[in-house]
Amino acid sequence: MKKTIIVIVFLLFTMFATGCDDLSTITAPVTKYAMNEPTTNIVPLNISTPEASQPAIEADKEVPEISEVPEIPEMPQPPQPVKETYLPEGAKAIRKGDTERPVVYLTFDGGQPTEPVDDFLDILEANEVKATFFITGNYFSRDALKESILRMVEEGHSVGNHTATHPSLPRLSPQEIEEEINFVGLNFRQLTGQDMTLLRPPYGDYSDQTLAIANELGYKTILWSVDYRDWQTLKGGPEEAYTHVMEHLHNGAIILMHLNSKDSLAALDKIIKELKLRGFQMEAL
After folding, report:
1. Which pLDDT tens digits describe the chain residue by residue (285 residues)?
2. Taking every annotated instance into account, which residue ranges of this chain make up the domain NodB homology (predicted)?
3. Rounded-to-integer distance, Cα 2 and Cα 242, Å
4. For residue 224, which of 117, 174, 218, 256 is within the disulfide window of CB 3.0 to 4.6 Å?
5. How many other β-carbons are positioned within 10 Å of the β-carbon of residue 223?
6. What dihedral angle (degrees, nearest 10) is formed by the CA atoms of 142, 136, 256, 124?
7. Which CATH superfamily is domain 93-282 in?
8. CA of residue 259 relative to chain centroid, distance
9. Residues with catalytic annotation?
């Protein structure tokens, strides 16, 4: 038994010695591919993911072509106001009409809801004279005044814009100027179906900017050449009104009166008759 064990051990040792290399000759395994030397010009892939706040593109949502995407400016640009030095062709203040012939233009500024506008219209109708009325936003606040506006149009008078609230326009921003003008213009169009083309700035105040804005909105700015401050009570009463008009009369005169003036109302018939005697025609602007 002991001999048998010794023989088996001897055989195993012989097999191991002939089937393996010496331990001192064992080396690290050789890889199939040689490793490249490290390089310094590695360019990373430009891979990014959407921010969490960015919604993912929905599968059924149509993505616009590049040509359909509007160009976005670097910084939002605020609206630019009209420069005060900008004065386009045709944007000017008109103080006189046709100076080549004997014609005058009676103009009436209205702003108060209690003005006797129909009394003025009665005198003009009786004398078969056409005139020009400039009205404020108050004229759209009462049905009676709306009827007066319709009468002005039906009888052949011109109706112009005197702004919504009668402010000094140069003191306003461009947007406020447009709002003052558009309020009256839009209400007039809604009432009559016609567009206004004449603007009389309150107090006669204007600037290059107001002229430009009015021009862009389709208005001519109308002032006057004859004025006797009838918005206040005249010391000389109706006779003062009559005398002032006759002393400052000229071809193409634009005569300013106010619908709240009792003196002008009382003098109007006499003024018209004298103008006719002197050979003047009276026309609407």
Report:
1. 555 555 555 555 554 444 444 433 333 333 333 333 433 333 333 333 334 334 433 444 343 343 333 333 333 333 334 333 344 555 799 999 999 999 999 999 999 888 999 999 999 999 999 999 999 999 999 999 999 999 999 999 999 999 999 999 999 999 999 999 999 999 999 999 999 999 999 999 999 999 999 999 999 999 999 998 887 777 888 999 999 999 999 999 999 999 999 999 999 999 999 999 999 999 999
2. 102-283
3. 161
4. 256
5. 16
6. -30
7. Glycoside hydrolase/deacetylase (3.20.20.370)
8. 31
9. 109, 258
Alpha carbons 185 and 146: distance in angstroms, whole number: 14
Dist. CA 254–CA 257, nearest whole Å: 10
CA torsion angle 89 90 96 99 (round to 10)? 80
Using DSSP, how many helices (H) and how many strands (E) does the chain show?
A: 7, 9
- Tell me the domain boundaries of the chain: 93-282
Per-position b or e across 81-91, b if 16+ CB within 10 A of its CB: ebeeeebeeeb
In sequence order, what are the residues at sequence separation of 6 or more whose Cβ sits closer than 8 angstroms to the Cβ of residue 161?
Answer: 134, 135, 181, 184, 185, 188, 196, 198, 199, 200, 219
Contact 233, 113 (CB under 8 A): no
Bridge partners of 94? Answer: 222
